């Protein structure tokens, strides 16, 4: 069912959002175990394989690889950061619903966040091919489509007028950007404490 909705959101997002809304919510355990845990594995695993097996070359310079000892904790930390970010954004969506007069459950907000971020998770597979410009293009394209799904889905899924839906969606984008900046700051702090990558 999730896979059908995923492809439906690519071909006809407006109709698919309506169908997802009619289905109702699911349990937090079900949403996390069946969808979030698996989707969040794609970027860390792909980048782990790409950086340890293929290596990176920026602007045609020498190929650089990460050592296994440093790549494993980075991949694990990235995985849990993705899950925490997903839960944080979902909670913020749930909290903001009251401001916009929407009554929905945290489970529905979690599923909405998972659906809108699915293109970003799937784009993580490009990490298997560590070509910087290609990775940037693919991830930016996926981010643009996730934002499109967000703006098109909020009015339909939350059942609010489009004007309020635009403001709601913009608030969600702001929360997502703040979460991203927070993760980057934590990464810099951890690297400063000596937990950075080791190149070979």
UniProtKB/TrEMBL annotation:
Record membrane topology: Multi-pass membrane protein
Major location category of this protein: membrane
Residue ranges annotated for the Yip1 domain, each copy included: 7-181
Alphabetical list of InterPro entries matching this protein: Yip1_dom
UniProt KW keywords: Membrane, Transmembrane, Transmembrane helix
Location(s) in or outside the cell: Membrane
GO cellular component: membrane
TM stretches of this protein: 31-51, 71-96, 108-126, 132-154, 166-191
Protein name as it appears in the record: Yip1 domain-containing protein
């Amino acid at each position: 069912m999730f896979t059908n909705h995923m492809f439906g959101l690519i071909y006809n997002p407006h109709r698919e959002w309506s169908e997802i809304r009619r289905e109702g919510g699911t349990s937090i355990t079900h949403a996390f175990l069946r969808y979030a845990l698996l989707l969040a594995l794609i970027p860390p695993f792909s980048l782990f394989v790409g950086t340890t097996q293929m290596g990176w070359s920026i602007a045609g310079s020498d190929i650089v690889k990460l050592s296994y000892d440093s790549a494993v904790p980075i991949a694990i930390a990235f995985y849990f950061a993705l899950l925490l970010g997903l839960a944080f954004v979902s909670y913020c969506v749930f909290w903001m619903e009251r401001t916009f007069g929407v009554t929905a459950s945290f489970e529905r907000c979690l599923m909405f966040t998972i659906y809108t971020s699915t293109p970003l998770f799937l784009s993580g597979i490009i990490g298997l091919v560590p070509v910087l410009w290609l990775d940037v293009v693919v991830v930016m394209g996926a981010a643009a489509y996730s934002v499109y799904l967000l703006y098109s889905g909020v009015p339909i899924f939350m059942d609010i007028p489009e004007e309020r839906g635009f403001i709601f969606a913009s608030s969600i984008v702001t929360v997502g950007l703040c979460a991203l900046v927070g993760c980057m700051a934590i990464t810099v702090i951890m690297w400063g404490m000596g937990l950075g990558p080791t190149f070979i």
